[in-house]
Amino acid sequence: MMRIEPKKIMCAIDFSDFTNIILSYGKSLASEFGSTLCLCHILSGTHMVSSLGHSYIHYPDIETERIQSAREMLEKMAKEIDIECEVIVSSGHVADEINQIVLKNNIDMVIAATHGGSGIKRFLIGSVTDRLVKILKCPLLVLHAKEKHLTSVVEKNIKLKRILVGCDFSQDSSLAFDYALSLAQEFQTQLYLAHVIKPTQHIEMPASNYIKIQGGDYTNWALSEYMESQKKADNEDLKNKKMLFRGLEKQLSSLVPEESRNWCTPITILLEGQPYKELVDYAGQKKIDMIVLGVHGHSLLERFTVGSTTDRVISRASCPVLVVRESS
Fold first, then answer.
1. Which of 39, 106, 117, 168 sits most deeply, having the most CB atoms within 10 A of its CB?
2. Domain-embedded: residue 50
């Protein structure tokens, strides 16, 4: 197990009503790990258009004023949360600019919020988070900014009691587990290790159709013989399934080092179904405070498709999701 100790954590601040939630998690994580906190705001390019449809003349001073205003707001926030902070203000495409700042400043983790909503607002805001998931090489903690999370103050200590990590035994999954275990140790939480088994597709044939079986002696089967053969097959499947589950539970349990068992009693879970749905449903049932997932690859195809599970968990989970990728 590799001990995870992020030295620099960056809060992506957009000055929305949910800024305090981002700051709360940033302050809590930085305090626990002894990290430097970086407050960052990206000014997205905007075109000012008159009511007649003509673009206004662009004044460089306007951009300078916006940058200065954003910097002052971030510096005020830094004073209020009373923790060592760096302030960064830049302009450009939000996700790509954040990625460049991460690379230039050796950021170890980014915290951002996805706002949800509906229509074009959800598409635009969601697209930033979606792109960050695909391009960032450092972990990304996605918070779910919902109305019930609105707060007028920055919470001193975010309480994490239950952390769920998805384990598929890949290299990315192994790194995600390291992050989950480190977080569990820092916050003294329960650690849930979940593996989701995708259901195999069986071709089922109703008993009433047994006469339709073609070929050989099978066409002469009686209904009772057909039902007996199905029962034997089911019993064999059940036996194999139990063996598979025992093996997977043992493999999940073995992920936790002996020295960690002094403070951590891991809970292993085997689920069956679509990974994103099973993880989200389980997290809701157990009131999980954070889900940790590993994502795979950096190729163009992988960047485009990554996500079927990760993106769906992010968009559907009611708790924060930490997305971890192996650096290449």
1. 39
2. no
